[in-house]
Write a structure and sequence with these properties.
Elements lengths: L1 H14 L9 E2 L5 E2 L9 H14 L4 E2 L6 E2 L3 H21 L4 H13 L3 H14 L7 H12 L14 H17 L1 H7 L5 H15 L1
Antiparallel strand pairs: 1-2, 3-4
Helix pairs in contact: 2-3, 2-4, 3-4, 4-5, 4-6, 6-7, 7-8, 7-9
């Protein structure tokens, strides 16, 4: 029993992240966390969470000495968005049926202006979870990004496909039924997307 205990301890010791760099994963702020090993966690979920961190901490940087927040460079913003995209893609290779992962991937792709890739990811999320009230606001924000004027070309409006309009209409209906106040705050009546989707949504709900 003593020999068995020593062998087990040695195995655990050898594979611990403090002594084995191969089981570490870099964090968004440059340190490392223990990645999900198959026996202890869902690696797809871990990669998704890490990518999500890069995505939503994308506008923040910290002084390594004081810990105070500071201004982040455009180059670093771009690097974080690409890192988020890579991590989320790794997650989706392991779990391609994760509708939330496809929305986060679309958000990362939108940050780096990969619009066609963003639209493909958004479409995949709609296919997997067409009636998801949690994802509906995120997807409608992406629809607004597609439709509305861009920062670099104020005169340009990107046309939405019939399928995108139909899917976004369904998200509008879900929010109207379950969270109407949130829908109002998400898409004001003066917004051109609201004019497009709201009328269609009313038409659908009355049919």
């Amino acid at each position: 029993m003593l020999i068995g205990a020593v062998v087990n301890f040695a195995a655990v010791f050898k594979t611990s992240p403090a002594f084995n760099s191969e089981v570490r994963a870099e964090s968004v702020f440059g340190g490392w966390r223990v990645p999900n090993a198959a026996a202890h966690y869902d690696r797809s979920e871990y990669m998704l969470e890490l990518g999500y961190t890069y995505l939503f901490e994308i506008g923040t940087t910290y002084d390594p000495v004081t810990g105070e927040p500071g201004i982040i460079s455009i180059e670093e913003l771009d690097a974080r968005a690409h890192k988020a995209q890579d991590l989320i893609k790794q997650s989706l290779r392991l779990d391609p049926a994760n509708a939330s992962g496809w929305v986060y991937l679309a958000q990362a792709q939108g940050r780096i202006s990969e619009i066609e890739a963003m639209r493909n990811s958004l479409e995949r999320s709609w296919e997997l979870a067409p009636n998801n009230v949690q994802l509906a606001p995120l997807r409608l924000q992406l629809v607004m990004q597609i439709y509305q004027t861009s920062m670099h070309a104020p005169e340009q409006v990107v046309a939405l496909s019939d399928q995108e309009i139909a899917s976004a209409r369904q998200d509008v209906l879900i929010l109207r039924e379950q969270s109407p106040r949130y829908l109002e705050s998400l898409i004001p009546e003066s917004d051109p997307v609201r004019a497009l989707l709201d009328d269609l949504g009313h038409a659908n709900s009355s049919s």
